[in-house]
Write a structure and sequence with these properties.
The chain has 14 helices and two strands; from the N terminus they run H-H-E-E-H-H-H-H-H-H-H-H-H-H-H-H. It is an all-alpha fold and 265 residues long. It has two domains: 2-81, Multidrug-efflux Transporter Regulator, Chain: A, Domain 2, CATH 1.10.1660; 141-262. A hairpin with a 2-residue loop joins strand 1 (28-31) and strand 2. The longest helix has 23 residues, at 144-166. The radius of gyration is 23 Å and the shape is elongated. It starts with a helix and ends in an 8-residue tail after the last helix.
């Protein structure tokens, strides 16, 4: 412990707390009151400090990030965890970065989350799709959750833009449901996962869901004829709700008609 404290420049009490909350792999017990640590512990403690100081992440958020950075931490040998280039990327977190790269990550995340869903996509998947080093990812997003929320906002904009473009002039609420369901279908996994995560009280997801539904509802409201909205002020919100169910119905119907092994993953 004394050597770990010295090499990581972190107090013993803090290191013990990291162990207690599961941020560090357990040390090797060699005696009742003696434990051995290795290079993994030094580097992870340093990484936790960097993420707190450079990115301002809470320990809870770091607990979600570490498995993405170090997916096989426990099974690693007692050697260095990071390549030099990954350390450089983490150390550079917080510097000015290109918005174009961030947009590429959001675009790749949109495609992956829409096709495979939140649970089946990892940060590594997104990095491979964009040919970006995993260490670089954390210069743009603190976690997979933060990327998913950015994707949800992008999906809201895409659906809101698609509806008025695809709707015929003078369209009514009933016909609007089918048009909106078609626009929403390709991103249905994102919408449903966003709803599920909001129901689980995950921080930020309820606000993102409200933003999505209100943004799409505004697009419907601006497209419907004024007298329809005046007569039925709740019609746009009802169109959004019904469109989600209609998009789900279409997926269920397609699933019944096509063998499961032929459906896209």
């Amino acid at each position: 412990m004394a050597e770990l404290v010295a090499r990581s420049a972190t107090g013993a009490a803090t290191v013990r707390y990291y162990l207690t909350v599961g941020l560090l792999p357990p040390p090797v017990r060699v005696a009742p009151n003696r434990f051995l640590y290795d290079e993994r512990h030094v580097e992870v403690v340093r990484l936790i400090r960097l993420l707190r100081e450079r990115r301002g992440l809470s320990l809870e958020a770091i607990g979600r990030v570490l498995p993405e950075l170090l997916p096989d931490l426990v099974g690693r040998p007692a050697g260095g965890l990071f390549r030099a280039d990954m350390w450089r990327e983490v150390l550079e977190a917080g510097k000015d970065v290109s918005s174009a790269t961030r947009e590429r990550l959001v675009d790749a995340g949109t495609a992956l989350f829409s096709r495979r869903g939140y649970a089946d996509v990892t940060v590594d998947d997104v990095c491979k799709a964009t040919d970006i080093a995993k260490g670089s990812f954390y210069r743009y997003f603190a976690s997979k959750d933060e990327l998913f929320l950015a994707v949800a906002a992008a999906v809201a904009r895409q659906v809101a833009d698609a509806f008025p473009r695809d709707a015929v002039p003078g369209i009514g609420p009933r016909e609007s449901v089918g048009v909106l369901a078609a626009a929403m279908s390709q991103h249905l996994a994102v919408v449903l996962d966003l709803t599920s995560l909001a129901a689980q009280r995950r921080p930020g997801y309820a606000a993102a869901l409200r933003a999505l539904t209100s943004g799409v509802g505004d697009a419907v409201r601006s497209t419907l004829e004024a007298e329809v909205v005046a007569r039925e002020p709740g019609a746009p919100d009802e169109v959004v709700a019904r469109a989600v169910f209609e998009a789900v119905r279409r997926v269920v119907t397609a699933g019944d008609a096509e063998p499961a092994d032929r459906l896209p993953r």
